[in-house]
Amino acid sequence: AKDAAGNTSVASLSVNATTTALAAPAIVELFFTEYIEGSSNNKVLEITNKTANAITLTPYIIKKQTNGAGVWSSGLPLNGTLASNGKFVIINSALATSCYSSALANVSTAAAEMSFNGNDAIGLFKNGILIDIIGTFNGGVTNFSIDETLRRKAAVIAPSATFNKSGQWDIFPLDTCSGINNRQSQQVQIITATAPVFSIFPNPSNGEFIIEIETRQNALVQIFSIQGQKVVEQEIRDKQLILNLQAGIYIVKIINNDGFETKKLVVN
Fold first, then answer.
1. How far apart are CA 123 and CA 75, in angstroms?
2. Mean pLDDT within 184-189
């Protein structure tokens, strides 16, 4: 080919190109996926493992900053292993709602980290490093989330140390807990305060059983069905209480001035 001045141009080279779709980013870390700041003690956190592998929870700890000021709390350590695509549910031990059974939670605890309000930042730490947060550290007393449930948007696949409520979370009304989904086939882990020591015998039982505490200090007995319904509330005044229940699986909670303890009861 020649240009306007009659010069011969060098022949063009043909180029073959192939386009390749970009690979989806690898998911490498745990993060919060649900936060319930409900009525009274209806407080729930859910952590999800969307990675391809099971993750040991020992390096992880949940901390709280109270009223948007001061230092982080000493923290609620996590234990166990969370399977790929598994969810880990932590509840306040006084949770009282019909849409989620306390017995299905991975952790039931009265720890300070699970007594949060709408201006208490909640952080997920790994090996002492903040990796995910709900709320703003040093955000002051203004509520960032009160009387509502936050659920992580489906597009979010990684934790964030900066809280972005509108961009990363969907908002649901007070005490919405239908989205909590624990696919772990592990027993509930009970974390207790300084607790009254008690025993249940026989356990399993054929109906009648005895609850015995090791101190003569009066204590309150609460028994919940596996669906979370309270079926017994009675005081122990002389170390022992004899009860009779229909067949089922129950959670027995003993409360006194020193704290509480929770155990599982099976009635055949």
1. 9
2. 40
Q: Which amino acid is at 74?
A: S
Q: What is the DSSP letter of 2?
A: B
Distance from C-alpha of 72 to C-alpha of 176, rounded to nearest angstrom: 27
* Residue labelled with tokens 């709900």: 134
Mean pLDDT along residues 78-95: 89
Nearest 5 degrees, angle CA 39-CA 40-CA 43? 75
Q: Are strands 169-172 and 148-152 parallel, antiparallel or unpaired?
A: antiparallel
Domains 31-172 and 192-267 equal at CATH topology level: yes
d(CA 76, CA 63): 6
Please give the Cα distance from 214 to 223 (Å, whole number). 19
For 106-161, the three-class secondary structure string (H helix, E strand, C coil) is CEEECCHHHCCCCCCEEEEEECCEEEEEECCCCCCCCCCCCCEEEEECCCCCCCCC
Average pLDDT over residues 143-171: 94
- Amino acid identity, position 88: F
Query: d(Cα 253, Cα 230) in Å, to the nearest integer?
Result: 11
Q: At residue 171, what is the residue type? A: I
CATH assignment of 192-267? 2.60.40.10
Contact 203, 266 (CB under 8 A): yes
Beta strand 87-92 pairing with 60-65:
unpaired
pLDDT tier at 162 (50, 70, 90 boundaries)?
very high
Q: Confidence class of residue 90 from pLDDT cuts 50, 70 and 90?
A: very high
Delimit the domains of the chain by residue range. Answer: 31-172, 192-267
Q: Which fold has domain 31-172?
A: Immunoglobulin-like (2.60.40)
For β-strands 107-109 and 87-92, DSSP reports them as parallel
Nearest to 78 by CA among 126, 129, 115, 29: 126
